[in-house]
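Blackboard transcription, Thursday session:
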Amino acid sequence: MKLIYERSVKGRKGYSLPPDEFEEINICDMIPEYAISKEKKNLPEVSEVDVVRHFTNLSRLNYGVDTGFYPLGSCTMKYNPKINEKLSTLDSFMYAHPCSDTKLVQGSLEVMYELEQYLKEITGMERFALSPSAGAHGELTGVLIMRKYFEDKGEKRHKMIIPDSAHGTNPASSAMAGFEVVEVRSNGRGTIDIEHLSSLMDEDTAGIMITNPNTVGLFEEEILSICKIIHDKGGLVYYDGANLNALLGIVRPADTGVDIVHLNLHKTFSTPHGGGGPGAGAVGVKKHLEEFLPAPLVSECNGVYCFEFPRKSIGRMRAFSGNFPVLLKAYAWILSVGREGLRNVSQASIINANYILARLKPYYRPSYDRFCMHECVLTGRDYKEYGVKTLDIAKRLMDYGFHPPTIYFPHFAPFAQETMMVEPTESESKDTIDEFIDTMIKITEEAKEFPDILRSAPHNTPVRRLDEARAARVPILKLEEK
Amino acid sequence: MAYKVIEGLYYTKSDEWVKVEDDIATVGITDYAQDKLGDIVYLEQAKPGTKVKVDERVITIESVKAASDINAPVSGAIIEVNDKVVSDPSIINKDPYGAGWLFKIKMENMEEMKDLIDANSYQDYRKE
Amino acid sequence: MQTPIRIIEKSRPMRYIPLTEEEKGKILKEIGVSSFEELICAIPEEIRVKNDLNLPQAVCEEELLEKVYNIAKKNANFFEMKPLVGAGAYRHYVPEVVKSVMARSEFYTAYTPYQPEVSQGTLQTMFEVQTHLSRLTGMDVVVPSLYDGASATAEAVLMAMRLTHKNKIMLGALLHPHYKETIKTYTAPHDVEIMEIPFENYLTDINELERNLDDNVACVIIQNPNFLGGIERMKAISDVVHKKQALMIETVTESLSLAILTSGRENGIDMFTGEAQSFGMELNFGGPYNGFLATKNEFIRQLPGRIAGETVDIEGKRAFVMTLRAREQDIKREKATSNICTNHALNLFAIDAYLSLMGKEGLYELALLNAKSAHYLREGLISTGRFNGFAYPFFNEFVIKAKDPVEKVSEKLLQNSLIPPLRLSELFPSMENALLFAVTEIFSREDLDRIIDIFKEGV
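(Written on the board underneath:)
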């Protein structure tokens, strides 16, 4: 498709401005000459209808949850309720300036305060900061809190334990917070090797970052022992809530012994993923860590809401107080689902994932042959002998109208190679899941009989398989000006 | 799938190959390594004259979806680097044992060769 | 006999979960278990939730709408109350086309474009925004979406420290205070020395900068227009900075100014960071906005975050893909340039649509209109005799000192349905009674005359 610049025609306009009713003023009378650009910045010149058609056509090249099944593991691509989009554009919310006196934004603050109460109840944590912008931002917030906590106690701890199955953001966040990453192995069952953990944990180690259920879709059944090992040496346990969709109303992370959590509101709590964001990464802590939370927090005093700046706060993580519309959508979703509904959400997501696992395991040997939680990890390793990789299977799925699962992650053990992480969420009907399963089975037949079809897939997407090496070897990162 | 392994070269378990001529070790990555990395797109070369210790990272090779550290199989000083692979990294994919060599080390301790493995052992090690 | 009707606890049907009880039974049977509980047998009994969570009962859509609508009413009527405050968040008019683009669910219900064959809409938009922002900032390469201007600037500081292997950073005193705090949060673990460069007459004191600059400085960060709206002498500043081989980071919070001001290329800027909220995003009580980080070609391997590149598919057709991926956390883990994964990508559709609509001429005209409006209000306020102005060059934000107590000035503006300007005394103790006004095109000349008239009558 043409770039918007390739539709540009000199003199064409897509804008309407209020009339300029001011006297003729020379720009140089307002802005010093040294600061004025010699040329106007060369943006495209297109009409309003050009813009509308451009984006309508671009949208048709995209695949979203509203288009079809999007089982992207670890991303919880559930349905994003339409009513929540409307709520977030109510005038009084949408036009609220972040520097307004708090007495003018009592409604916005009430939403944030109430959301915090719900998240506390769901997780069992004592206090939440809603400002972090995304999961990884929440992780960074969490590990900075850990750092500050030890600094406050006069302890120097420079290491962080991360499971080999962890998301890449965990080690990256730890490194950003100045920790040296130490990897703990998984055992043969796909969960943390407790003995190895014991041998790693010491008084130089701040603690562990743990995802539960982990990235293989398995519940860390020894979570209590894990927390004990860490706490016995004075460490802290960080809970990455990327997979909380499995635990709503079933397990409260706080009861498993963890000290800090982050929740991805754009995953578990249904806010849209926006083509890569915005999300929100609310961070919850237990009592002993409250005073280190990032500024600002929302608090209530005699029915009046205000911002609070914790005494020993790690500081600000961003300019203002959070992604308000995202927080509002999560709040609305909790209200719509209600207390019984939350458990049903997790139950349905677990049932759906196990159904896929049960029906597909004869075709795609799973990394671990056990019941899974809300997602399952299958592999395409049996088709390598036909010259077919998991990548080819994923690309072929698009021909049949499905978004592929997460592929090549996790990839930490020999039996966790050629992986496909499938997360159906609670949003999918049995019919959709059956169609997906049948298609996956059909693809295994194709792999054996017509492997070329897979290797050259996809065939009927807007573009075919891309030359990614070319993009990286000689990067073209913008349209050059003529 | 069988990966190409060349007789007469030495290998490491981190998939580097080493050709030893007198006290000069030429280093590259194996066919297995280039296949696992996929299309190699970028690397920054080492500076000639740099001293390296065995198992120390010398350079990082990046492919489209992976990045891999290349460690020194032996200790010594880097005396020559292959600049052709910087301007065209695909050479490493096409000819890992030939034109795709990476750097040469003037060895300071020939004893370290004992820790390298031969072609047969490497082939067994990377049999799929 | 008829079966008596059993009254069961009313549970509302869950419209977001399609699975029926009957299907659930069938599926469990197929899996080979007799109950759901068997599937979660790995979870120890002692940590399971025993009682119902203390949360409200589910509400229906109509109840939800009413409930949230009533909460929204507790806010001021912000649509009518126009803000005279900016300070890093600016209310500009957002054309309806921008909103309709943002509302397309093919965009907002997708995720990160990991599968480029079905994500060209997102990827091409990234590429177009990279082009727009590159042209506006005059930099070679742009990471189009980080969380916001503050975190983007903090990432640039970390990047400068990696590039220079130095650990001293100098912040302009007139960098947005929240940006300063964010930089301090991000750099706290890295043994940094942070120094502030004082200002004089509302602009960075270049002599003080030169006097304090030494060989250990990794980077100097200057906001332009600065927090008080002042237009800095960027070329002069960057020339000084480069004498000591430090990197020059320019930051912008009011991106509309880019339409008029000299570019990073002209000024020798090494990294250009900013907040693109002015390009099609509503205020939304502080976010989500959109941070960007632009730099020169030579530094691209150290950039944080996602970037789209052009390539071709197997049929030779032009297409876009996320590229330079080996910098990122999912590949490099603890060696990645940043931990960022999810960003604020949806706002790229707003930026792309907004800048395409405005175009070369429109954005320039709009910037000029903003400057004129702000200068007009400042003159008018001073002419009432109740304010003192200061002579320094500014774009659409300026400082003015009230002769009356600022509380009264704010009160008066509120009574007239206006969100008052920022009081500066809390941030700068020396600026008692000083107010930071922001004026955009949402105020017509008539609106501005009305504001001036308010003060003619006295406070």
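Lecturer's comment: Strands of chain B lie at 10-11, 16-21, 24-29, 40-43, 51-52, 57-63, 67-71, 76-81, 103-107.
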